[in-house]
Amino acid sequence: GAALVSGFLKEWIDAGAILTIVVMNAILGFIQEFRAEKALSFLEPKVVTALLQDHLKKSSSQLPAIKILGNLGDPQAAGMLTPFLTHENRDLRFYAADSLVKLKDKRAIPYLIEYLKGSDPAKSAIAYDTLCQKTGQRFPFPYFASREEREKQAGPWEQWWKEKGEKFEFK
């Protein structure tokens, strides 16, 4: 935002400095999260789940904790993540659904199907990839098409879930 305003006002040095700071902050955040996940991968999943339980209560660390729990493979984490499916924060809801499907909790599948139709194409792409990987189903889906087109293309997923959802088992 500030970089755009500076650029609009032809304050190129300020715009460049602000943009550089924002990009560096994003890169450092990614590196820190990657290092944390790497370090946690050496621990037993149940130990990591227990360690992250407190982080789910702190708003500043909820999102990274949810993402890490989804990648651990510890089924006990599902009970900790389920309440986030109805959280007021859209990002927490989305990543909780994504993590729960990765943990083979089928209650979250309808949430990811809904995200196929959402306003954020990146989240639609993540939802589609997780659904394909974890359900073994594959329906054509245009990640970055218009929202209207994505809504239409989510239909086969909705139909599949309507027909198979109750009996569906992860492999």
Summarize this entry quickly:
The chain is 67% helix and 0% strand. It is globular and about 55 Å long.
Strand-helix topology:
Blueprint: H1 2-8, H2 12-40, H3 45-53, H4 62-72, H5 77-81, H6 90-102, H7 109-116, H8 121-135, H9 147-153, H10 155-164
Helix pairs in contact: 1-2, 4-6, 6-7, 6-8, 7-8
User: How far do the termini sit from each other?
Assistant: 45 Å
Average pLDDT works out at 84
Number of helices: 10
Contiguous runs where pLDDT drops below 50 for at least 5 residues: 2-8
N-to-C order of helices and strands: HHHHHHHHHH
Provide the β-strand percentage band: under 5%
Rg calculated over all Cα atoms? 19 Å
Question: What is the strand tally?
Answer: 0
Measured as a percent range, the helix fraction is 55-70%
Q: For the report, how would you describe the main beta sheet?
A: none
The structural class is mainly alpha
Shape: globular
